[in-house]
Structures are given as structure tokens and as C-alpha cells.
Amino acid sequence: MVKNTRPNVVLIIADDHRYDWMHHKGRNYMETPHLDSLALQGWSFTNAFSCAGVCSPARASIFTGKYLHQASAPDIVWQNNSFLKLQEMFPQSLHKQGYKTGYIGKFHLGEEEKPKPGFDLWASFPFVGNYFDQTIRINGKPAPQKGFTDDNIAGLAVKTIKEWSGSGQPFCLLVGLKSPHIPFTFPDRMKTLYNDVVFKEPETFNLNYSKSKPGLSNNLINAKTWSGAIPKYGSFQEWVRSYTRLATTIDESVGQIMDAVSEAGLKENTIFIYTSDQGYSLGEFSLCEKHYAYEQIMRVPLIVRFPNQKSPGNPPSDMVMNMDIAPTVMDYCTGNVPGDMSGKSWRVLLEPKNAKRKPLREEVFFDFWHRAREILPPMQAVRTEQYKLIKYEYQPYEELYDLVNDPLEKTNLTDDIKYSSIKGNLEKRLESWKKNTGWSDRTSVNLNSIYISKSSSLSEGQQGSPELLNPKIREITGNNEIWKKLTRQGSLFNLKDFIPDEAGDQSLYIAIPLRNGAKFDPFISLSITFPNNKKALPAALTGYFEGKEIYMNMAYKKKMKIPEIDKLEEPLRQMFDLGYNPPLKPGENVILLRMLVNKETPKEIEVSVIGGLSKIGWQ
What we know:
The chain is of the alpha+beta class. It folds into 3 domains: 8-350, Alkaline Phosphatase, subunit A (3-Layer(aba) Sandwich), CATH 3.40.720.10; 364-372 and 379-437, Arylsulfatase, C-terminal domain, CATH 3.30.1120.10; 442-618, Jelly Rolls. The chain has 15 helices and 28 strands. The strands form 6 sheets. It has a 9-stranded mixed sheet, with helices on both faces. Strands 19, 20, 22, 24, 25, 26 and 28 form a 7-stranded antiparallel sheet that branches. The longest helix is centred in the middle third of the chain and has 28 residues, at 236-263. The protein is globular, with a radius of gyration of 25 Å. The N and C termini lie far apart (53 Å). Residues 457-464 have low confidence and may be disordered.
């Protein structure tokens, strides 16, 4: 590190890039000269891991230096209010200490179109965006683009580095690439690349794992049958070739940004990092996509170049995680690692006090959760240098592998008596991790009571009524003039006393008091449905937090004639917006919603909650 000068930071995050899909990682046919060069100038870690199985949780961990449950992001949702309102990303921390900060590209945690506090530059697009002609919203203003999206993202990153390099102010720039996420839509310049390469099917491609991996028996994402995998591309060869072409565009983007740093004269004072949120399955066990605690998903590419890099091209063999990026950057840029970060700074790897230091980690942990648990089974895992134990969250299945003797994870040793002590040790580690990090069981519950108000003190669109918008538990439970406690009548809540007789929509307010016993927001999702309604009308809902409207479902937006953020908003929300995710601080909270009702609204409703509920107490 240059003396008396705080380093700049450039972090590039790809989407679903495998750890082994680069020339210097053994894919000799791949054209990745820039990533290979970065590996020689710095370290391309040999044992780098993600703690999460899908994009949004992994990104939340990277941005906060916390495990995904501590970062309030266990799942992919259209809008993660828990993360957006209650978590602080490390660039935001740096901004408070004098850094210029920017985010360009895919974010994937909600409200991507809106600028975020603590960022001088925010340039993103809703949800995952498109590969071509994707408008980028720069500090909230639409900037139409032509061509391949990652080219435009890299180009904006280059422009930003040039502009910021002369200010004398240290900067932190995060760049989120789309590649190589599905669909594998590559630019024309890649059309003939790798045409002469014959891709080998994984050794486990046709493995019958009905006995070794029974938890995958109903798996949704089988590469041979899932519409987004081999059937879409016509053959295994074209499927993998298309992924590889997109993965190669990553190298081009990284190269442009590397050149911009060098041309600005900042190479010797910039921490330059490349990684992916998690890996990807290309036919192992007939799988595609990610999700599961196997090596091709847990392991990630992670290349870092430090100022005054020690032992370039010769990385330590320690197990590291992309969750370590935040504490490492904070350590080098501020001299302090925030106490709530679970990741580990790599300073000890760069500046070892003695040659006999202990490994950075004895184990790494992995977590995957999805609400559709029948077809995408949630699981947790612990992995040491030699062994891995996988436990399914809702099923009585587990898997144990000896990674030294069985690196392809073909033989499940969980019932082998010779490995019983090893299995017991790993089980203790996993349970200890859950306890020490505040992990909560993810369950669901139908609420037994709610509070209802028809108070007219809040008119349509107004956000200023203290008794409704900033309620406290005692004010709600004790104020019979405004709030009425409603309990179930039979199996559902009956709203007959609150549904208007006249035409036109009216507001009905729903309050749910609770106590959060966790040290952080455990992430819950609340839904209101009409089970006995044959028309399947959705409840029109908006949610409030600290006096402000922070969430609207599609039914509410349509009634209020609020335009969509993007033409794909409605179909994406049908898949990824299954309810309101209210931010929950430690201690007492009130979930507050407004529901639009009229004389056609069904009178019986169900109110259910899913998520990390084990430390939630309902009032």
C-alpha cells in the first residue's frame, strides 16, 4: 500500500461464473488473457467459496461481509426491504470516511432504478435486466443504451475511472456484470468462438443418484429437461458452448477496466478484485443453474491484486470467501473491520507475522433457502479441507463426502460407520455456526390476530398521520378508538364489518405488532389472500416503514394507476414477489399495511408469514 495514501477499490462481480471456467484454471481452450494476467499480477485463490447458493443472497453477503441470514437476504425477491432499509454496504461505510463511491450494473436486491444513499454514482436497471439495449438508470435518470449490456457497463466504468482519477479523492467502484447468467445470449462477435471445441460431459452427468442424493429426486432444474438448459440450446454441446462464449465476454470487460486503472496511473494504489456471486452447474449430477452445496456452485473465481502485491501469481491455499471482500477492503482502507462483519480480512495472508500461522479458516459454511422447497430443496453445509456435510432443511436427508478421495462427490458416506466420528464432528460445527451467527429456522405460520383501522385521518396518497404511519405496539393494542383487534372466525379472518357497501375503493389499515428477538432482521414475508374467492383476486396492498410508503404490489399499482418500472415487472413479480417483506429492527415492531377494499372485496382473508420466525414473538 502506498504510504499516506488510501487505496482506491475496484470490485467486479460476475453472475454465475464457475471457478474453473478460465484458461489459467485449466480450460486451455478459453481465451481469458486479462483474467489470466490479473492472476499473475495478484492472487487467483485456489480455495475460494460463496456462502450462498443464489444471486441476491450472495451479493448481500459480498456487500456487507456477513452471512446471508445476517444480511437479511436468504432468498431472491423482487424487492428486499430488509436489506435496503436496515443493512449498510461497505461502500456506504467508506463514503462516510471520505471515499467517492459508485455502483454500475446488476444489483439484484430491489429498487435498482433508484439511487442509493452513500453512493455518488448509482447506475443500474430493474432486477436482472436484458443482455441487449438495456436502459441504464444513472442516478435515477434513464439513459437508453444500444448493444451488449456488459459492454455498456464496462464502458461506463471506464468513463467513471477516468473522471474520478484526477480528483485526488480515493474512490470505491463496484461493477456488476450480467454475464454469464441465463439466457446465454452473447454478442455477434462470439458467434464462431469455440466452434471447434468438443465439450466433455461431466463424469457424473448420467449418475444415478437416487440413493446417494435422494433429496434431489423432485429437483426442478434438471439440465436434460429444464426449459432454460439443454432443451433451449438443442444439445449439451451448444448449451455449454453458449455459456462459455458469455463467460469469455467477462474477460473483455475486466480487461477494459484494468486498462482504465493503469492508464489513469492508479494501478499501484488500487485494490482490484474480480469474483462471482456463486458458481454454476453444467451437467454435474444432471444439474443446471446453482442452488446446491456442490463444488461447482460453492466454489467461485476470486482474483485480487493489491498495491505492492506480495508473492504475485502464488496465492495462499487458505480457504477464503467472497464474503471476505468487505472486511478486507475496510481493513486496508480505514484500518478497521466493523464488528458486525463475519468475513475475515486477508491482511494476515499478505502480512503474516510468522511462517507458521494458522489457516485463515478451518471450515466454510453454505446456506440455500427457497420457498418452493419441494422442487428446490433448501440445505445447509459445512466444508473443511477434506470433508463436506450437507443437511437438507426440511427433509431427513444428509450427504457426507470425502473430497480428497472423492472430489466429484459421487459417494455419499453418511451411513458409513467408519465415518461416524467425522460426521459427528461436522454436525457439531454446523450447529455451532447456526447458534453463533444467529441463524433462524425458516418456517411459516398463519397469524391468529391482526389489528384493523378504518381511520380516515390518512387520505389517499397522504403520508403524514402519526397515529397510523408511526404506530407503536402499545398505542395500537391500547387504542380501541382507532384500532380493533381481529381474531379468526373459524379458519379465516372476517372483514364483514370493514368492507364498504358503496362503490369505489376505500382504505383499510392492517397492523401486526411483534417483537424481534434477533440482533438483526431475520427476513420474513407476509401475504394476504382470499382463499374462498373463486376469481382469485389479489389483495391490493402497500406497506409502510418509518412513516413512508416503501412497497406496493401490482394490484395496488394498477388500482392507483402507477406505471410499471419495467415492461417485465408484472411477470417477474409473479415469480419473485410473493408478499410484503417488512423491515424489522431488533425489539418491538409494527408491520403496517394499507389495503384497498370495495364492496366486491371478499370478506374472508388469510394472513400468513414465512421466513426466519424462530425469534419472532407475535403480540
